[in-house]
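Homework help board

Subject: predicted structure for assignment chain

Our instructor gave us this sequence and asked us to write out the predicted structure in token form, then describe one feature. I got the tokens but I'm not sure how to describe them. Can anyone check?
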Amino acid sequence: MKTIALLGQPNSGKSTLFNALTGSHQHVGNWPGKTVERAEGYFTFDEEVYRVVDLPGSYGLTANSAEEVVTRNFVENGNADLVCIIVDASQLERSLYMLADFAGIERPVMLVLNMMDVAEQKGKKIDVQKLERLLNIPVLGFVAADTDSYSRFFETLKRATEKPAKISSEMIRKIAIADVNENVAKDRESSPVVALEKLLDGLDFGNREKFWMVSKILENDSLVCAEIKSSVAFEHWNQIKKILNDEGSNGGLITGEAKYRFIADTLREVSSSIEKSTKLSRFDKLATHRIWGKFVAFFILVITLAVSMTIATPVILGCFAAQGGVAPHVEAICASLGLWPLVASFINGVLVSGLSVTIAMMAFVFSILVTFGLMEDTGYLARSSYVFDSWLSRLGLHGKAFMPLVSGLACTGGAVCGTRVLDTRGQRLFAMTLLWSIPCGAKVSVVLFLASVFFGSSAPLFGLIYVALIFGSFWLSAKIFGNKLVPVDERVGMIMELPPYHKPHWKILMKTVGRNVWEVFKKAIVVIWLISFIFWAISYSSDGLVTHSLLYRIGGLIEPFTQIFGMRWQLFISYLGGIFSKEASLGVMSVVFSSSSDAFSLVARNAAAENLGEVLRAAVSIPEALAFIFASMFNVPCVLAMGTTYRETRSVKWTAAIAGYYFAISLGLAFIVYHIALWAI
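My token output:
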């Protein structure tokens, strides 16, 4: 089995190629001993199985981040039989830097010029065969989003594995030496490149050429410098340090300019372009404007959320209608089979209810992933990231987090899936932590309903307070989690190419979204059924009366504790009901505060009584109402969002930590508000 490593810059189409090759035969984990995400999968071609490793996206191989260290170590250590470098054919001048930075690593390589269709639309012509002759490695013109292109990919792949070819750094070395000799002072006897090469004579660099090591020394690469320091004599290391001190920041410029000169010289031989005016150029100026770009992004986001709601709402209504329609039939079948009513209650309250909630929420996940995929596929997502980067960088995140964070207003679960656009695992975990404080529409409706019941025309004030508290929670989360997940000394400005606009590739997009939704569903349904069972077990009673349930007895025992936070046991159980779905908290209130004998369940989505407002005003004091409202603001999101968070983090520890954090915030707010209200009223 041959191992193929996919190497490329962000937005080069690397993930599209990986998903198309591996399909459902892929899994994601962490690199051993690292918190960097590792994606690998398998595919079969010509009766041979290939292992594909999707290396973290980076702009070069200098060790500036954990992702780049992982990528470089994998490539350097010879773990791959073939390194497949994917570049954006429409922006070769910049995207070929990865190939230039790789040159000098003695591993078999092939070059994939992705997005050839976009390059042609922009009037660029590339002589792929001539480029292959110049580089002396296999080169393929390709469109990763076009399934018809893959036959040529497999042919080139087979050729690259049967006749391995490596790319030398000799041309870049010659340019670096010539460039320095033209520009240094007259008393310089030789270039720093030559001087460093002499000091490294006799050392074994494994799969790396000597000039590649020299270039990384000049770039002050921490890993290479540490390796050389431990390998050379003390006096030689002092000489190396003197050269670096003499060059200062010019060392990196020498190698960087040589690589870009190499790219320019190569492209001059193989490419030509005809400038084409584009109707999108005016829009692009607006979309990337420092001020107006934010308005454009908000407008597009509103449209995106509206489309997501339009797609998801019929499915959600259909699921809950089906849930109500199935329940009588389940009861009738169980009765005809002579089964205990407990069995019918379990099927309806756990299996059917959990399944309907999961399918309903998957509609949100599907619609958000589709709309996000469209924005990314067309090239707009990068623009929105650019205009909001200055805001989010204050929290330690990149502008790419903007769309996932704001889409949490529609569905937290779908937004959690949207954090996949972020670069590192730490950024994704931090964004998920912030996401849990952003209320979905259901949570907002519960808070404002209760505010209007108890405070009438002053209810809008609670909306303003809510917004202020959300920003306050962002600040608190940044202090508690930010430095751990995104350490200050590892934060760098957002580096990204603005990809060209192009038409979405629906076939690939829908296949990718469908596979992702199925993976989320498989994880989420397990979590939802588990929590549904726990809620069902403690709330079940044979006659449906809450006073005869285990929950009632538990409520009596915990009330001395919950009263500290301003919630008698009925309110606290309603608060817990909000974990299953936000609307459920109102349904639970309708049962526990009324004198009716309605069947009680935390998972059966009891409808709120028409006179719920009157019932609550008669039974709940103002301090208790305030405590419940503020606790509801930062209650953990619904069970689907928790299940999705577990699916995306693949960590029970982190999911539990985030949940515990929000329980602490919500109950802490309830405690403070309740006791202030008791004192003031």
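Reply (TA_rk): Your tokens look well-formed. For the description, you could write something like this. Residues 292-336 form the longest helix (45 residues). That's the kind of observation they're looking for.
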